[in-house]
Backbone:
């Protein structure tokens, strides 16, 4: 603990001493504990602004002040040290309990946290009262139960009444609010404070009419107009005026036919009830102002993003009607914002993709915690179709799904690149035919198709291709392969698939072809190849090809089918080449 920390806590010690001494002198009527106790509220407010490791200097000063007040105005020097423990334990217990629910600096920012503070205040007062009542019974007058009742009542009501205001002052919010406030707002706060003071004074200077409700009206107005700052000032004003006049024998409470201690207890109940009426309202209003300010800032950011974003933002109702469209829709699609409002968004989508878009909309409404992505084509200004990608998520208001928001971007370029990559991945670079991977996929699709049901697959192998490479070179061999691909495309039917499956190996899928039809296509290809003459570097090259054909039915095994066609191919080669054979 440094000298600087000790010096910083000196004002707190003086405040604690003043509050403790004054409440003991004014409210200790029956020789026991004081009926009013605000000192713990001042210490608790300070502890809530500090980390626990920095509490020592504050506790030291308040401990000294407690001993001084008890010695001079309370139970005497002999009770000073015993009473010090419950007096300090009470705010410590309350601060620890509040810290378990929320950050101490935000103890009164929401009504939930305010409720936690109330529970902590009552529990801390009861726990400290166990020892405080025993000390009062031992060194003062009154029984243990009576002292315990007075302790817990006075201390709990003192904490509830004064801690929120003291905390507002202790963390500097009071001064900061005044500094930030405009001149007009300061004048308004001054007027509201004056009104609260006048109404409170008017209610408590007389003791013939029960007008305790009068101060609540201007205090409520102050809370609505001025927020937490005005509420804190109003509570402080009410406490000082009502407490001072009541202790001097003025006001409706002083007219109650009861002992002075009971009148003081009623005053605390009145103050606590007023605080619990005003502070929650001010807290809720403050929270709503912060939410409203955050909403305005968010709206400003959202509007800036809308105006500068190249993406289209749409808000759709439950049935898909467009409620909002960002200005970028005109730049991208050519549609004017006004022309699309009220229309169903699916009308902007091409017919072939509308079901996918509708399905995504329904999924987003049914799963509000997820974002759904769909790609579709839509016509733009020049009438051409472009690809768009939409990220769709549900909009929730008051825990109810009220529509969706869509972020849409033009992905035409990406789709073109993807299509090129997909074509390259499925194409043999030399011949331009589909490759083995694409052939296998096409064969699986053909054998499982419900439309065709049956067909044939043919495998071809160029005869003596190795000799062509050895004699004429690989460049010549490449020309032979490209020549076969050209002849095959010209001989097959529309819808047939021609593929290069290996070095000099080729395959053709003939969906829906009968054995005779497949034979006619394949023999036409064999004849075209054998009649073709290639001239490469002045050299004439003639080639022949052998083929094997297997017929399939729906759900035939592709592996079995290829094995049968392969056996037929080798049968054709074994029979002299340049011929066609069918699987048995």
Residues:
């Amino acid at each position: 603990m440094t000298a600087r920390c000790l010096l910083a806590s000196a004002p707190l010690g003086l405040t604690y001493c003043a509050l403790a001494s004054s409440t003991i002198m004014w409210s200790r009527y029956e020789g026991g504990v004081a009926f009013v106790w605000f000192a713990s509220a001042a210490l608790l407010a300070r502890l809530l602004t500090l980390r626990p490791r920095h509490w020592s200097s504050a506790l030291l000063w308040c401990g000294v002040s407690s001993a001084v007040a008890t010695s001079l105005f309370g139970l005497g020097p002999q009770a000073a040290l015993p009473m010090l423990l419950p007096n300090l334990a009470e705010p410590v217990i309350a601060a620890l309990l509040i810290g378990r629910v929320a950050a101490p600096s935000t103890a009164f920012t929401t009504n939930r946290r305010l409720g936690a503070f109330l529970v902590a205040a009552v529990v801390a007062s009861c726990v400290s009262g166990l020892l405080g009542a025993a000390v009062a019974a031992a060194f003062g007058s009154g029984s243990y139960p009576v002292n315990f009742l007075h302790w817990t009542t006075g201390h709990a009501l003192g904490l509830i009444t004064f801690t929120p205001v003291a905390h507002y002052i202790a963390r500097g919010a009071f001064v900061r609010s005044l500094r930030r406030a405009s001149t007009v707002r300061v004048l308004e706060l001054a007027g509201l404070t004056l009104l609260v003071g006048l109404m409170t004074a008017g209610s408590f200077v007389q003791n013939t009419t029960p007008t305790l409700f009068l101060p609540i009206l201007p205090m409520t107005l102050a809370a609505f107009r001025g927020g937490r700052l005005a509420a804190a000032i109003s509570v402080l004003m009410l406490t000082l005026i009502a407490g001072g006049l009541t202790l001097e024998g003025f006001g409706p409470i002083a007219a109650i036919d009861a002992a002075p201690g009971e009148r003081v207890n009623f005053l605390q109940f009145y103050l606590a009830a007023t605080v619990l009426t005003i502070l929650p309202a001010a807290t809720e209003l403050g929270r709503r102002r912060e939410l409203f300010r955050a909403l305005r800032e968010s709206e400003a950011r959202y509007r800036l993003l809308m105006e500068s974003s190249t993406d289209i933002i749409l808000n759709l109702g439950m049935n898909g009607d467009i409620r909002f469209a960002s200005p970028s829709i005109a730049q991208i699609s050519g549609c004017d914002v006004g022309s699309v409002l009220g229309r169903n968004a699916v009308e902007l989508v091409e017919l072939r993709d509308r079901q996918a878009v509708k399905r995504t909309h329904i999924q987003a409404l049914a799963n509000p915690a997820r974002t759904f992505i769909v790609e579709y084509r839509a016509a733009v200004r020049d009438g051409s179709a472009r690809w768009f990608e939409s990220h769709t998520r549900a909009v929730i208001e008051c825990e109810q799904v009220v529509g969706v928001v869509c972020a849409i971007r033009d992905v035409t370029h990406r789709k073109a690149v993807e299509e090129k990559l997909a074509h390259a991945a499925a194409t043999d670079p030399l011949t331009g035919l589909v490759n083995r991977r694409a052939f296998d996929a096409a064969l699986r699709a053909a054998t499982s198709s419900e439309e065709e049901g049956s067909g044939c697959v043919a495998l071809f192998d160029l005869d003596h291709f190795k000799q062509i490479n050895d004699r004429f070179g690989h460049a010549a061999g490449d020309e032979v392969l490209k020549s076969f691909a050209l002849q095959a495309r010209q001989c097959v039917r529309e819808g047939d698939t021609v593929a290069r499956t290996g070095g000099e190996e080729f395959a053709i899928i003939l969906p829906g072809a009968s054995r005779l039809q497949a034979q006619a296509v394949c023999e036409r290809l064999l004849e075209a190849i054998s009649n073709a003459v290639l001239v490469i570097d002045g050299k004439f090259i003639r080639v022949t090809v052998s083929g094997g054909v297997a017929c399939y039915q729906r759900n035939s095994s592709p592996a079995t089918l290829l094995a049968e066609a392969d056996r037929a191919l080798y049968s054709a080669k074994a029979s002299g080449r340049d011929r066609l054979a069918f699987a048995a």
Q: What stands out?
A: Residues 260-308 form the longest helix (49 residues). The first strand starts at residue 312 and ends at 316. The chain has a mean pLDDT of 85. The chain has four domains: 1-171, 172-307, 309-416, 427-582.
